[in-house]
Specification:
single chain; about 375 residues; alpha/beta; eight-stranded mixed barrel; three-stranded antiparallel β-sheet; 8 helices; 16 strands
């Protein structure tokens, strides 16, 4: 997960960098991920956008979904949101993998960051593991364990319902407890955090490419639930990638996601192997909706059967940026200022984003279309048109 912002890995992820050891890596890559009781899987950030998750050899996939409170734009990150996260998670679900999602801490107000995370991902909570990515890079709060306590407490509060100062409103499935991801500073984690939250620890023996390992170096040294043991992993559909081992089986993963084991409302139906958005529903008519906690534009499109996503409008003019209380509309006029031209098109190249193209030509993202019909799902070679 360190690759999030195109910076060098911190010191603990650069330990003992050595040769490639590619032959050994290829041999280990061929071991089935399900050969042991523990689960083997990967975590992915905005630097793995477009990866084939459906055919990836992994028991689970953890996806970086949000950064800070929206201040990061990089690769497929748009206003702090990974615009490829929905596709990644849908492909994981459709192929029978467990999934998780994480938020990258940037040291702002911890309650605001937890709210940003929840607001953009609430439909996945209690179905997949959620986690806080607590690292030194771009995090002025690093070393402040009270920041972690506050973020975790707010995440629990939001997932259980209710408002600050009022009695909690119970949601089916109860409160989700995020995992804490961090490096080999695990020995300094306060006891109350250890007691209340599962640990996901990153510590590498070296930086040589490798496939899955059944017993990686220092496994279990911190009593962790999950260990990230390589940042230069090799799997069949992508490399390099972070490799992880979850110290348990599928039912235990599910209990981390939903401690009560109760049934929560199912998220939107997973996309097929080649993700596509349903065709536009021209009979929907004008829709106006006031955004509430936990709601997403994708969720509204599913609930109203109102497609494509590009036909939804938000006050910001960007369907990836909206807030509680915003009035969003479908099928009517946009609340943003209309762009003054007749349209522009571009064939997307590696590293391009719709957001970059749209803003460079004076358009909001909501005025652009891509072949999939979902403005968050596009590939190299696709033609994006903004008008």
């Amino acid at each position: 997960m360190v690759n999030n912002k195109d910076k060098p890995k911190p010191w603990y992820k650069r330990l003992l960098a050595k040769g490639t050891a590619l032959a050994a890596a290829v041999c280990m890559m061929l071991l089935p991920a399900t050969a042991h009781a523990d689960m083997q899987g990967v975590d992915m950030s905005n630097w793995q956008c477009g990866a084939d998750v459906y055919n990836m050899q992994a028991d689970f996939v953890v996806v970086g979904t949000t950064w800070g409170t929206g201040q990061v734009n990089n690769n497929c990150l748009v206003s702090g949101v990974n615009t490829d996260a929905n596709r990644m998670i849908y492909q994981a679900q459709a192929s029978g993998k467990k999934f998780g999602l994480y938020h990258y801490a940037m040291g702002g107000n911890p309650e605001a960051e937890a709210q940003f995370f929840y607001r953009n991902t609430s439909n996945y909570w209690r179905h997949g593991i959620v986690a806080l990515d607590w690292e030194m890079d771009d995090n002025p709060a690093w070393g402040n364990w009270d920041w972690v306590r506050r973020f975790m407490a707010e995440g629990e509060r939001l997932s259980g319902g209710g408002q600050r100062g009022a009695g909690p409103v119970h949601r089916p499935g109860g409160r989700a407890k995020p995992l804490l991801y961090t490096g080999p500073v695990a020995g300094t984690i306060p006891g109350d955090i250890r007691a209340n939250y599962g640990l996901w620890i990153a510590q590498y023996a070296n930086m040589a490419p490798t496939g899955y390992q059944a017993n990686p170096w220092m496994l279990g040294a911190y009593g962790e639930a999950m260990r990230q043991y390589s940042g230069t992993g090799v799997v069949n559909t992508w490399s390099p990638i972070d490799l992880n081992i979850f110290r348990g089986e599928g039912w235990q993963w599910d209990l981390y996601a939903n401690p009560t084991g109760s049934t929560a409302p199912a998220p939107a139906t997973p996309a097929p192997v080649q993700p596509s958005t349903p065709p536009a529903n021209t009979n929907t008519g004008g829709i106006s909706h006031v955004m509430q906690w936990g709601e997403t534009i994708w969720g509204l499109a599913v609930a109203y059967d109102a497609w494509p996503l590009s036909a939804w409008h938000t006050p910001s003019g960007d369907i990836n940026r909206y807030y509680v209380g915003d009035v969003v509309t479908y099928g009517g006029g946009s609340t943003a200022t209309p762009a003054p031209s007749t349209g522009v098109s571009k064939v997307l190249q590696w590293g391009d984003t719709v957001w970059d193209f749209a803003t460079a030509h004076g358009y909001s993202v909501s005025r652009c279309t891509v072949p999939s019909g979902n403005i968050n799902v596009y590939y190299v070679g696709d033609v994006v048109t903004c008008r």
